[in-house]
UniProtKB/TrEMBL annotation:
Residues 32-91 form the SIAH-type domain. PROSITE patterns: ZF_SIAH. Residues 294-303 have a biased composition (Polar residues). GO terms for cellular component: cytoplasm. This is E3 ubiquitin-protein ligase Siah1. It comes from the Eukaryota. GO terms for molecular function: ubiquitin conjugating enzyme binding; ubiquitin protein ligase activity; zinc ion binding. GO terms for biological process: proteasome-mediated ubiquitin-dependent protein catabolic process; protein ubiquitination. Keywords: Metal-binding, Zinc, Zinc-finger.
């Protein structure tokens, strides 16, 4: 409910926006009259009034227990314990560096459908799982996000680049698109086609001694705000009043020519964001694809 969310944000900040004082009313109200989600310790910040039915939320809570990603395991583990479960029980590999070079072991001819162990990447305070599966005749590679904070599920958008390259044959295949939520099933990922997909006839050219080496990068991009969208809107009813005067045009010209005005503030930040966008694809990803690490992590077949 919006009222509870507003009070909760007030409690988190502990200071009133105008006077800088603590909002004791909000803090006391939340403490005495609200109930948290049962998965609060896993990271959920959802609150409702005491006595309200929490079942609709808790049944769909992002931080509820999750079934292990390994098909033959099927164990339901606490949300925050998934990475440790996969690491200690299934010996998956992982990295905290981006871009990452990931090698999938496929020494035998692929005649049946198969699935590899996930590869974990810890970045941006979250955990990403790089998945690879063969459902003949196609290879599928995608990235799942296990977010540790609820803000990343709606305020930010993670973009991934997945590349495989054969320098000798001058072949390169790259896909760029959104990272998928860990709650999105692999069937939905494949159905929507929002992942790296390649036919086995083409991908055989990238098989090097029974190994497929992919280079994966992940970026975080803030979504456009309402203020940014409204900045370019022209209201025809007030177009005469909004038409720039000679003085405002002169000011704009001075701003465009005087780069010292960009040293701080929003304009410089917007310029930085634009520069970041222009850098895609990342040269580091190309470098890694041209000279993959000999000690790159190897993901074996899933049991």
């Amino acid at each position: 409910m919006p009222f509870m969310k507003k009070l909760f944000r007030s409690k988190k900040s502990k200071r009133h926006g105008f006077s800088g004082t603590r909002n004791f009313f909000a803090e006391n109200f939340i403490t005495n009259c609200s109930q948290p989600c049962r998965y609060a310790e896993e990271g959920c910040e959802y609150l409702r009034l005491k006595g309200d039915n929490m079942q609709p939320h808790e049944s769909q809570c992002m931080f509820r227990p999750i079934v292990c990603l390994i098909p033959n395991c099927g164990e339901e583990v606490p949300y925050k314990s998934l990475l440790s479960h996969l690491t200690y029980n299934h010996k998956i590999c992982g990295s905290d560096l981006l871009p990452a070079s990931i090698t999938f072991h496929a020494d035998q001819p692929i005649t049946n459908n198969r699935k590899w162990l996930p590869f974990a990447i810890q970045a941006f305070g979250n955990v990403f799982y790089v998945m690879m599966e063969v459902i003949r005749p196609h290879f599928w590679v995608w990235v799942w996000l296990q977010t540790t904070k609820i803000e990343d599920s709606y305020e930010s958008l993670f973009i991934t680049q997945i590349m495989i390259k054969n320098v000798e044959k001058k072949l390169r295949l790259m896909w760029e698109g959104p990272v998928q939520s860990l709650r999105t099933s692999e069937k939905v990922v494949m159905r929507d086609g929002l992942c790296f997909v390649a036919h086995e006839v083409f991908l055989q050219h990238f098989n090097s001694g029974g190994y497929f080496t992919f280079c994966v990068d992940i970026k975080k991009s803030s979504r456009t705000t309402v203020m940014d969208l409204n900045a370019n809107v022209v209201d025809e009813r007030t177009s005469a009043m909004n038409t720039p005067t000679h003085a405002s045009l002169t000011t704009r010209s001075r701003i465009n020519s005087d780069h010292s005005l960009y040293d701080s503030g929003i304009l410089r930040e917007q310029e930085r964001i634009m520069e970041d966008d222009e850098n895609i694809p990342n040269n580091n990803l190309e470098e890694l694809a041209d000279h993959p690490n000999t000690d790159s992590f190897v993901s074996k077949l899933s049991n």
